[in-house]
Specification:
With about 350 residues, this protein is of the alpha/beta class. The protein has 14 helices and ten strands. The longest helix has 23 residues.
Length: about 350
């Protein structure tokens, strides 16, 4: 079977493929591979694609992943909506919902990064010199202080509000400022800010420098099954190319399961870390020390969480009205892949 698509596509093999089979597959010749364009901000949360690529899954399916890094969710959305990208990992912002209102047929098809109890690469941290030893005292210590978030029009801003409410506080009790993730550690070190909702790999770097202490992993404010904060998104054109779209999802799902087996369960962990470090261009110890990102092994997406998030955006005046989430989420690809490969165990 030959696929004709421009998407970052992940080919697929038997569901039982493990990290131990790296380089064990016979790849198709380069001339026969069909390119799939995949966009993201890059980094360690592209691990499923790195692992699947290293295992030869794409080449085995006659596909080649063209990974393209972009700096922001709006850029990724525009590129996916216009067909410049076939698949992308896009943070949930008001623009994702408003794009649907404007007729852009983007499809949330799976999970690129999620939070679940005990598994979170996104955490609220406080400067070490302000640390009071526990969550309740730290939250009270932050009254009147500056807390940095990457963007107010984001899921982490809503989760921060949830944490404040838990401790009898509101946004009026703190000063929330917007700051890019790379700039958070310098700002914390210089005491320009007092706390931050940080994420990997910047989070581990801040902790390694003894600059911060974790206050909360924020996972208590999402459903027990977890919630996607960066979904996997298909362009309309790619979603309509059923064989290619299905092949991508099957292989991506296998990459996700390889990640969970290795990083969460410890199976072939050293091999997985080496692969992720190579593709993400970071040192293996950074991957090893990092808090793992959630990646749902069955590619479930909580529509309930998406509804709550867009309602929050409306309340914050970042979105005019809500949309029917069922028009945004299409889990048919993931459902079919799980049916073929079986539920994750």
């Amino acid at each position: 079977m030959r696929f004709t698509s421009r998407v970052c596509t992940i080919g697929f093999v038997a569901a039982a493929l493990s990290l131990g089979s790296f380089a064990g597959l016979k790849a198709a010749s380069a001339a026969d591979l069909k390119v799939v364009k995949f966009g993201s901000v890059g980094g360690m949360t592209d691990a499923p694609i790195y692992l699947a690529d290293e295992a030869g899954l794409f080449a085995k399916a006659g596909l080649k992943v063209d990974r393209q890094r972009m700096t922001s969710a709006p850029n990724l959305m525009t590129a996916t909506a216009t067909g410049q990208l076939d698949v992308a990992g896009i943070s949930i912002t008001p623009g994702l919902f408003s794009s649907v209102q404007q007729g852009m047929q983007l499809r949330i098809v799976g999970d690129k990064q999620s939070l679940r109890p005990g598994v979170s690469a996104t955490r609220l941290v406080i400067r070490s010199d302000l640390d009071q030893g526990n969550e309740a005292k730290n939250m009270q210590a932050l009254k009147g202080k500056k807390i940095a978030v990457s963007a107010k029009a984001s899921s982490v801003y809503m989760l921060l509000e949830d944490l404040l409410k838990k401790h009898g506080m509101t946004f009026n009790d703190v000063q929330v400022v917007e700051l890019s993730y790379p700039n958070m550690l310098p700002a914390l070190t210089s005491k320009a800010i007092d706390a931050a909702v940080d994420l990997e790999p910047f989070l581990s770097r801040a902790m390694s420098a003894s600059a911060v202490k974790v206050v909360s992993d924020l996972s208590e404010f999402v459903p027990a099954s977890g919630s996607t904060i960066v979904p996997l998104v298909y362009s309309e054109k790619f979603a309509n190319e059923k064989p290619e779209a299905m092949a991508f999802m099957k292989a991506y799902l296998q990459g996700v399961r390889m990640y969970n087996d290795a990083i969460i369960k410890g199976k072939d962990k050293d091999k997985a870390i080496a692969v992720i470090a190579k593709y993400a261009n970071v040192k293996p110890e950074i991957v090893r020390e990092a808090f793992p990102a959630g990646l749902d092994p069955d590619q479930r997406v909580s529509k309930e969480f998406l509804d709550r998030l867009q309602t929050f955006f409306v309340q914050q005046h970042y979105l005019r009205s809500t949309v029917d989430v069922s028009k945004v989420v299409d889990l048919s690809f993931a459902d079919a892949a799980v049916k073929e490969l079986g539920p994750y165990k």
